[in-house]
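I keep forgetting this: the sequence line spells out the residues, with the fold written below as integer tokens. I include a record here:
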Amino acid sequence: MVFYGVSLTLTGLLAAFFEPAASVLRNLARNTGQGPAILIPLAFLLLSFLYAFIRARSEAKKERWVAAYGWLLGSAALAVILLYLYLSRQAAS
């Protein structure tokens, strides 16, 4: 049960980061004329977190808790770092 609580907390944290980032990217795309394709990397980041959740859940079913939480926390941290790098790259161009 704690595993799903941590998963929901991380999902909320990612939503708190990704929702404003998507708004900024939409405005940036509107101003530069790039279109909605600028949001595709955000979708891939969220899909990678979904894959990590499924992988972590299978590790939790095998009662390998360190691996399960490693997948969850690692993928959330990687998504936030890659989001930051993507936003800084788009803002610089």
The chain has three helices and no strands. Residues 2-32 form the longest helix (31 residues). The chain has a mean pLDDT of 92. The radius of gyration is 15 Å.
